[in-house]
TrEMBL record:
Organism, scientific name: Phytopseudomonas punonensis
Biological process (GO), any one: alkanesulfonate transmembrane transport
Domain Solute-binding protein family 3/N-terminal span(s) in chain numbering: 25-249
Record carries keyword DNA-binding: no
Membership in a protein family: Belongs to the bacterial solute-binding protein SsuA/TauA family.
PANTHER family: ALIPHATIC SULFONATES-BINDING PROTEIN-RELATED, TAURINE-BINDING PERIPLASMIC PROTEIN
GO cellular component entries: ATP-binding cassette (ABC) transporter complex; periplasmic space
GO MF term (any one): transmembrane transporter activity
Keyword list, A-Z: Signal
Signal peptide: 1-22
Subcellular location: Periplasm
UniProt-listed InterPro entries: ABC_Gly_betaine_transp_sub-bd, Peri-bd_TauA, Solute-binding_3/MltF_N
Protein name listed in UniProt: Taurine transport system substrate-binding protein
Length: 328
């Protein structure tokens, strides 16, 4: 009898555990960059399309998102091309399934008024902040390389966007390469020395992707397809109605509230990136081949800068156009 009761209790515990696991939300790591899909996030459009509970967690940098993905705390995450290259070079089992943005003026190097920096060569000896192993960090190193400035001659400090904003106000730093909302704030009392668009033309382009853990992607392909579909719909709405996404628009207010930005900065920050449509996503330029090649080039640069130990021979196993195709 005791054995029977014990067996029943174990069965109940197991069933309860399974029910709890079934009810666990999908955890999504997002960052504070401005893009049209933030409106869909604020509106609950992803939950409606996917039909499951979603737990949106905000992170200050791609490196933090990578750590959460590696631990299994996050199933889907938003990364820049630099942390993507760093993570996949270490063979972290991820798959990039959607290009979230091609970064142009949305990330920039701003120098503080009164810092004494009017030209690139005056960066020598100055303190410049950026989140390490981020797209902004990659762009900063790319700019210094273009200007033929040894990075060791500049005091580059690792600060996340919120810390950059605070350090800027205290006068602790002379400049920063960063994204929104910190970018919008520091531009009010500084000037742009260069941005990601210009650095991209110099040979170091940057972009953002949505990635998923490979084990999650294999078990839940429909979730990623629905996620991609909602995101692409948000991109299409923005492209069709750019003139309506003004500083006083409902869209700008929703984005600003979600990421802690000033609504007045949102239109300019949105215009600072391009958002590929479904056809562009699956093309040879992006998920159909170009994204993997760009990741390889980024990895080569990071290795050159001694940020990663080795470069993989092929990054295509870490990129897939399948989920966007299923969303079409």
């Amino acid at each position: 009898m005791k054995h029977t009761i014990k067996t029943l209790l174990l069965a109940v515990v197991a069933a309860t555990s399974l029910q709890a696991n079934a009810a666990d939300p999908i955890v999504i790591g997002y960052q504070t960059g401005v893009d049209p899909s933030k409106v869909a996030q604020a509106d609950g459009a992803y939950e409606k399309a996917i039909g499951e509970k979603l737990d949106w967690r905000r992170f200050n940098s791609g490196a933090d998102v990578v750590t959460a993905l590696a631990s299994g705390d996050v199933q889907i995450g938003n990364l820049g091309s630099s942390p993507l290259a760093a993570a996949t070079s270490r063979k972290l089992p991820l798959v990039a399934f959607l290009v979230a943005a091609e970064i142009n003026a949305a990330e920039a190097l701003v120098v503080r008024n009164g810092s004494g920096i009017d030209s690139p060569e005056q960066l020598v000896g100055k303190t410049i902040a950026t989140p390490f192993v981020s797209t902004s960090h990659y762009s900063l190193l790319g700019a210094l390389k273009h200007w033929k400035i040894d990075p060791s001659k500049v005091k580059i400090v690792n600060l996340n966007p919120a810390e950059i904003n605070a350090a800027w106000k205290r006068g602790d730093i002379d400049g920063a390469f960063v994204w929104s909302p910190a970018l919008g704030e520091i531009k009010r009392s500084g000037k742009v020395l260069t941005d990601a668009a210009e650095v991209g033309k110099w040979g170091a382009p940057t972009f953002e992707v949505w990635v998923a853990r490979k084990d999650f992607a294999e078990k839940h392909p429909k979730v990623l397809a629905e996620f991609a579909g909602v995101t692409l719909s948000a991109f299409a709405d923005y492209q069709a109605n750019v003139a309506k996404w003004t500083a006083d628009s409902e869209q700008a207010r929703k984005i600003a509230k979600l990421i802690g930005a000033n609504p007045a900065d949102v239109p300019e920050l949105l215009a600072g990136s391009t958002y590929p449509n479904a056809e562009q996503q699956v093309s040879a330029e992006l998920l159909g081949g170009g994204t993997a090649k760009a990741t390889a080039r980024t990895a080569e640069f990071l290795k050159e800068q001694k940020r990663i130990p080795a470069v993989l021979p092929d990054y295509s196993p870490y990129v897939s156009a399948d989920y966007v195709r299923k969303a079409q």
